[in-house]
User: Fold these one by one.
Assistant:
Number 1:
Amino acid sequence: MALIQLAHQANELGRFDAVIHNAGILNGPDVLAVNIVAPYVLTAMMTPSDRTIFLSSSMHTGGSADLSSVDFTRPRGRASTTASST
C-alpha cells in the first residue's frame, strides 16, 4: 500500500518539525479516504512531529456532508490515484 510505504520513507528521514496535509478532493467515492482516512493513517504511522497542520480551502463551501456517494464496499487497498500519488 502506497500510504504505508510513504510513512516508512518519511520515518527513515527522521523526525519532522511539522507535517502539513494539503491534499483533498471535493466529491466522489474517495472523499472519505482521501480527505479523512489517509491523512489520519499517515500521521498515526509517522514518528510524531512537533506540529501537524491540516489545510483547507474554500472548496468546503461547495461540498456536502452527504455520505451516500462514498463507496464503503470497495476492497481494501484499491484507492484511486490522487495528487499525493503523482
Number 2:
Amino acid sequence: MSAGPPAVGASRRNILVPEYRRELTRAELTVLGLLVERPRHGYDLEQVIERRGIRQWTDIGFSSIYYVLTKLERRGLVQVQVPEAPSAAKSRRVFQATPAGREAARLNALALIEEPRPVAHPLLIGVANLPLLSEQEYAQALRTRLAQVEDRITAVREAQQGQAPLPLPAREVFWCSPIR
C-alpha cells in the first residue's frame, strides 16, 4: 500500500511530487495567500503588502512581486485574467489562485503553523560577540534598540487601527504579536 506523496517539508530527492505539494518560499506563500483572499493585480499586491506591514516579517521586495507571480504561474498555482483591451498594461493583469494554488497555500501554511522551525535572529549574533563591546557600548545599543522597538510598536498600532476591519490573516498577525 502506497503512503502517498511526502508531506510538505519532507525529503523529496528523486520523488515526483505534484506542484501543489512542493514547499513554497515565504515570499511565494505570502503572495499566493493574498491571491487566495481575492484576485489582484501586481500593484494591488504591493499596496496590500505595504499597508499591512508584511515586509516587517517576510522578505518580499516590490521588484520581486512579478518574479514570484511568474514562478507561481509556471507552477500552475496562479492564473492570469487578461483584461479585455488588447493593449492593456501588463501591470493591470489580474492574478488569481488556482485550485492547486489554494491547496498549496493551505498545505504550506499548515506546515508553518504545525512545525517548529529555528528562527535565526541577528540580535543573537550581536550578543554572541559581547566581548567585543564595552559595557557602555552594550548599554547604549540596548537603549537605542528599545527606542526603535517602541517606535515600531507605535507604528504597528497605528497601522492596525487605520485598517479596521482587517481580514482574518491580518488580524491574527496583529493578535499573535506582542504589540497589542
